[in-house]
Amino acid sequence: MPDSSRTDAPTVTSADRRLVAEHPTSMALELVVHDPDTIAELTSLAAGDPREQFALSALRIGVLALRQARGQIDTEQIRRESERMLSGLDKQLSEHGRDVHTKMTAMLKEYFDPEDGRLQERVNRLIRKDGELEELLRRQIGGEDSELCKTLDSHFGHGSPLMSLLSPEESQGLLAAFRETFEKQLTTQRERVLNEFSLDNGEGALARLVKELNENHGKLSGDLQKKIDVVVGEFSLDEENSALSRLVRNVDRAQKTITSEFSLNDENSALSQLKSILDSTKDTINSNLTLDDEKSSLARLKGEILKVLETHSEANQKFREEVKLSLNEMVTRREEAARSTTHGLDFEDAVYTFLQQESQRTGDIASHTGNTTGLIKNCKVGDCMIELGPENAAAGAKIVVEAKQKKEYNVAKALEEIETARKNRAAQTGLFVFSKKSAPDGMEPFARYRNDVLVVWDPEQPDNDLYLKTGLTLARALCVRSGQHNEAKAADFQAIDVAVLEIEKRTGNLGKIESSAQSISKQSDTILKTVELSRRSIERQLEILRDKLGDLKRQEAAGENT
């Protein structure tokens, strides 16, 4: 075929120009066509330029179509992966949101529940009548026996040291001390002055002055005597205007002023004003720390606290309503799940959890097999498998379990499905568990059909656990029975058969007795006593089965040792 870079080639787009810039501008191809349709189309055209032009156009269309197909495939794959990642992320975020909501609900309820929350309890203890706050305020600034009143009374009361010191009647008081001190000082000063100006005192100032004047200035004796008389007159109390009389009057006036200022009888005295200020302060404190006055500081504080509590109460009420709505939604979802076809998975999980716990107690191994295929091709029948442990007489034997919560299952269909499950899982014994909500009408809670055991169980009723435990124990016994053929152990198998028949008989009686107990009230005591006797008999038979299985295990172990 000629060179594809002809001048009459199709119009080149911008994408083509970019590709041409990155790759060679021309390429020589030599092709051999084997496709009949392509050959027929090319043959219909004239040889030369028309045929070559058609071939180039067809090649270009095919290349563009393949390029578009690859882009669509990649986009679709990216879209699927993105949806899968977003779905997983949404599931994780939903689970995390539920966990956070549950934990936050529990914590907020513990602290802010208006009935028994820690905050509500603490606030009630603080502000209630005779509460901690009221008791503290009453003890500190309340009545006459409060700490404030005791402190004020001890410092400013009638029997306080201050009032005793300021009382004029007290012999040891401040005024008495002032009076005594002034009198002593005045007497001492007067005696000293009189002694200095007495002529009887030869060493006194006046005597020395007279002596000196007589010796040196005899002429002045007359004038000096007059001056001495003036000086003596200034220090005489007989003279009203003498210096000493004025001093005594000033001292008396000062004493009276001090006495009046520290007297409680005078309303304008300093002590009375101090007492008035203290009383006013006390009244102000009492008015601000009383609950009787709505405008007091304590009343306003109480009002603010009550507002905060009311706000918290409204918030708690709103939170409780939200919790109720959430619980109602959960109940609605649970009811919808019970009505939907997927609720069977919940029952199946409950059966598996119960059997797993029982298997751990007896040393067996329980595994969930409902999502895996068995020996039959593409068959997943058989919800779980129990393999008897090495301590069991039939170690390695298998029990297949089917759990159903569907109305369409009856006894015949259940036996058919459990038989398929035994074949699919290579099990020796089958255990079919009906949900009590969907079990066939009139079906006994416990029944055995050869190597299969049928049980009716309600996971929400603990009393029904006995049926499932009995069915599991019987299935283990059937595994031992089917795996042993030694005639020497016939007596043991006979005891096992008797125990199995007794269990079937007593379990059937339980169902009849319980239904009778629900409809007959007059004979309830007798019926309940019969139920209890049957329950004890079943437990004894279960113990017999366990003992016989243990004997078989020990006999096998002794045979292997010999």
What would you note in describing this structure?
The chain is mainly alpha-helical. The chain contains 18 helices and six strands. The protein has helices at 14-22, 36-43, 49-112, 118-127, 132-141, 147-156, 161-166, 174-196, 205-216, 221-234, 243-261, 270-288, 297-339, 343-362, 411-425, 465-483, 490-519, 524-561, and strands at 365-368, 384-387, 398-404, 429-435, 446-449, 452-457. Strands 1-2-3-4-6-5 form a six-stranded mixed β-sheet, with helices on both faces. Helix 15 (411-425) links the parallel strand 3 (398-404) and strand 4. The radius of gyration is 59 Å and the shape is elongated. The two termini are 92 Å apart.
Q: Determine the number of helices (DSSP H or I, runs of at least 4 residues).
A: 18
Low-confidence blocks of residues: 1-10, 340-344, 485-491
Rounded to the nearest angstrom, the distance between the terminal CA atoms is: 92 Å
How many strands, which pairing sense, and closed or not: the largest β-sheet?
Answer: 6 strands, mixed
Summarize the structure.
This protein is mainly alpha-helical. The chain has helices at residues 14-22, 36-43, 49-112, 118-127, 132-141, 147-156, 161-166, 174-196, 205-216, 221-234, 243-261, 270-288, 297-339, 343-362, 411-425, 465-483, 490-519, 524-561; strands at residues 365-368, 384-387, 398-404, 429-435, 446-449, 452-457.
